[in-house]
Amino acid sequence: MLKKVLIANRGECALSIFRTARELGIKTTIVYSKEDEDQAVVYLADEAICIGDRFPKDTYLNINALITAALSSGCDSVHPGYGFLSESYEFAKAVEDAGLVFIGPKSDLIRKMSDKIEAKKIMKEAEVPIADGIEINDKNLKDIKKIAEEIGYPVLLKARNGGGGKGMRRVDSSKNLMDLIELTKSEAKSSFGSSEIFIEKLIERPRHIEVQILSDGKNAIHLFERECSIQRNNQKIIEEAPCNFISDDLKNRLYDASIKCVKATNYKGAGTVEYLVDQNENFYFMEMNTRLQVEHAVTEMITGVDIIKEQFRIASGLGLSINQEDVKIDGHAMEVRVNAVDTYENFRPSAGEITFFLEPGGMDTRFESSIYKGINVPIYYDSMIGKIIVKDRTRLSAIKKMRRAIEETVIEGIETNLGFCYAILFDFDFIRGNIHTNFINNKETVLIERMREVVDYE
């Protein structure tokens, strides 16, 4: 087993990794910015190193600072968590070159899978269904318009090295195509360091279904699927497992395709294969996330498998502790992401001191967060400050439990999206499972109005 790990992340992600490492007897070093010096994990870890002032580029995205911190504190490994540098092959390679273990796949595989065009080629060769992507970086507007017309509007512009829902733009006609191309390139450059983009057919009203996989290089298994269609601006808000609204035949095809992805890439670690599923149950490979997912907890709730522990086992050369036949589904789990945003002000980020905090509890109810009364929520990082995860026997009972959990949660001093999520849980289409990736886009105004009617727990 590994001896000491550098946790190259912050917030609830860092805290989750710390807890698992502690249970396994692995010592921990946490890095933090000055803006994050009051985080709980800073006090809990065996060692804490400040690596900069506040901005991500100077702290959690600073590869040299992270490697220096790992080496100076005697770490033998680095866990990137999710977000920040978790899918950066440059960071993974720097960790490898420093003689440390990167808890995830090898840098070369991260490079291939983070390149969306390259990933599609690999999946096509493995006979996994894809929506063909066409590069447009060296083409003029006339040629791009011709490509878009041949594909058929609406089309989707996507960052070649993108992920996490960023660097994506829907295009409905040629009228504003050039403007949207420039916007997509700009976002791709700022988010991923490359302005290269591609174009593909946009699938209308799809479900976003993903399959969690684990592989130690010899044994590859899946942990069933997650339903992640409830999104705003391509950012997931509510996730659940399993998905009750697709056929068993489709599920089995998704599992088979995901294991093909693992075998085609010789994948080693925890990963997620994401798909778009149309209304006729045709599915298309979207991307493979070579890291831990924010929503991994819903899979843990229904399977009892600690995914972070399996990551540590794989990285330590011990292999998986389970086989496919050991993995069973027990109940239905749901997760709500708690974001520090002001819903009534177009979801504008909210920052400041938390003046009062009460977290939810009860049977099969988890609140994963690093917040507490008196902590300052900074403006410089992702707005997610926590996750509420519940499990019950059925989807409807899980919805009711989540409503109760949100009612119990009190966060004062900043604004959050909890009222908005609470309103979603009362929406008839959501309850019936009539959901797709445009669900919030189509209902946002109605949901905000409904907030005023149903949110009376404050």
Automatic annotation (TrEMBL):
It is an enzyme of class 6 (ligase). GO terms for molecular function: acetyl-CoA carboxylase activity. Residues 1-445 form the Biotin carboxylation domain. Residues 120-316 form the ATP-grasp domain. Transmembrane segments: none annotated. Keywords: ATP-binding, Biotin, Ligase, Nucleotide-binding. Signal peptide: none annotated. InterPro entries: ATP-grasp (IPR011761), BC-like_N (IPR005481), Biotin_carboxylase_complex (IPR050856), Biotin_carboxylation_dom (IPR011764), Biotin_COase_C (IPR005482), CPAse_ATP-bd (IPR005479). Its EC number is 6.3.4.14. PANTHER family: CARBOXYLASE:PYRUVATE/ACETYL-COA/PROPIONYL-COA CARBOXYLASE, METHYLCROTONOYL-COA CARBOXYLASE SUBUNIT ALPHA, MITOCHONDRIAL-RELATED. This is biotin carboxylase. It comes from Peptoniphilus ovalis.
